[in-house]
Amino acid sequence: MAASSTGLRYPSNKKTIYDRNINRTKTSELSRAAFAYLFVEMITYAQRRVTGIADLEKRLNTQGYPLGLRLLDLLLARTASSATTSPANLRPTRILPLLQFIHTTLWRHLFGRPADALERSAANAAEYMISDNDPLVNGYVSVPKEISQLNCAAFVAGVIEGVCEGAGFATDGVSAHWAEGAGGGEDMWPGKTIFLIRFREEVMEREEILGRAG
Amino acid sequence: MRREWEGEKLPRVVFTLLIVSKAGGLIYNREFHAGLSKQDTNELLIIAGTFHGVHAISQKLCPVPPAQPPPSNIPTMPVRPSGIEVMESANFRLQCFQTVTGTKFLLFTEPQQPNIDGIMRRIYELYCDFAMKNPFYTVEMPIRCEKFDRGLDGFVKATR
Fold first, then answer.
1. Were A153 and a residue from A85, A135, B38, B53 both cysteine, which residue would form a disulfide, CB within 3.0 to 4.6 Å?
2. pLDDT value at position B1?
3. What domain count does chain A have?
4. Does any domain span residue A17?
5. Mean pLDDT, all residues of chain B
């Protein structure tokens, strides 16, 4: 009876997850190998009964989405309590602070370093791109030739989508793409991945109104 | 002695790596440097299968299991028979490393190649990283992983 009631919710030392310090960041490093094996199982699971590459990426995206929603809250709570409360620590309400948050805070929390670039698409003003030269999730993944289009960082794209939508920025999806034909970069970083964020029209409208208000 | 003097000039070469599954099938082969005579896929499969059989026999030869088990209060580690570990000829050396699960790594090198244990350990690490942690690799099936190939090439060429 006692053994069955212990676990994450009721640990044996009577300290539940709510009793722990929210800012345990120093000792919270996780095993990379353990993540790699877990990610293998996640992809194997997502691969069941899929109809194609797009479907598989969609499933990976769906797996990452709830993680993004939770991470947004957690990371905001952490920054707000560690520094004195200033407007910068509140939920981002403009596009640029949101993207900065993803590029720096989220990336640093997940991968231990900021992302490598943050750009706005030249073709479409509602599209933004975050690039990572060597995504951690793809570290051990070799995609077979017949499905070389697949990028397993679609999982991370799902996390980004969760953060954006959790912060009130509706998107038309976030997707992960291999950086092909970008010129020069791909030899040095064969795994370079670009996360394409497409914001909805209403988000862009709101952004414009907020911009005019100053 | 003379050969040691010329150590710098001696060719120290890793020729070929074969990986044999626990069922005796060849699941990976890669040639790093020419030197061994060319073998086609069929012959490589035969080499792998034959070695697997001989290795299994050598594992059975020794140690002889104890007639009666030692007193149970002394914890004894069971001696795991290793089977063939090295085969050597005048022109090449074949090092065999068997993992706990029975996968065998066969490395053909020059007889003078130093630090084969280190090379083997690193190859095993690469196998663990880029084959076992690859979602698209099925255990016991032929290994076709681009990053594994690249990692091996990068490592073996650097050791030279």
1. A135
2. 39
3. 1
4. no
5. 85
Instruction: List the structure tokens of A55.
Output: 């479907």
Cis peptide before A11 (omega within 30 of 0): no
Q: Do A40 and B135 touch (CB under 8 A)?
A: yes
* Distance from C-alpha of A20 to C-alpha of A77, rounded to nearest angstrom: 14
Q: Per the domain annotation, does A196 fall within a domain?
A: yes
Which has more pLDDT, A111 or B3? A111
- In a domain? residue A39: yes
Q: Inspect the interface and report whether the beta carbons of B134 and A140 lie closer than 8 Å.
A: yes
By the CB < 8 Å criterion, does B133 face chain A? yes
What pLDDT, on a 0 to 100 scale, did the predictor assign at position B2? 40
pLDDT at A25: 63
Report pLDDT for A190: 84
Is the model's pLDDT at A198 over the cut of 90?
A: yes
Look at chain B and count its residues.
160
Q: Mark yes or no for CB contact B135/A33 under 8 Å.
A: no
Nearest to A47 by CA among A114, A171, A209, A39: A39
Neighbouring CB atoms inside 10 A of B35's CB total 16
A158-188 pLDDT, tens per residue? 999 999 999 999 999 999 999 875 444 556 8
Note whether residue A143 is domain-resident: yes
**A193 with A132: CB under 8 angstroms?**
yes
Domain containing A155: what range? 31-213
Indicate the SS3 state at residue B53: helix
b/e sequence B48-70, b meaning 16+ C-beta within 10 Å = beebbeebeeeeeeeeeeeeeee
Q: Which of chain A's residues have a Cβ under 8 Å away from the Cβ of B135?
A: 39-40, 43-44, 47, 141, 152
Indicate which CATH number applies to the domain containing A189: 3.30.1380.20
Chain B environment of A140 (Cβ under 8 Å): 129-130, 133-134, 147
Domains by residue range for chain B, with CATH: 12-67+77-159 (3.30.450.70)
User: What is the rounded average pLDDT of the residues A120-133?
Assistant: 92
Contacts of A177 (CB under 8 A, 6+ apart): A151, A193, A194, A195, A196
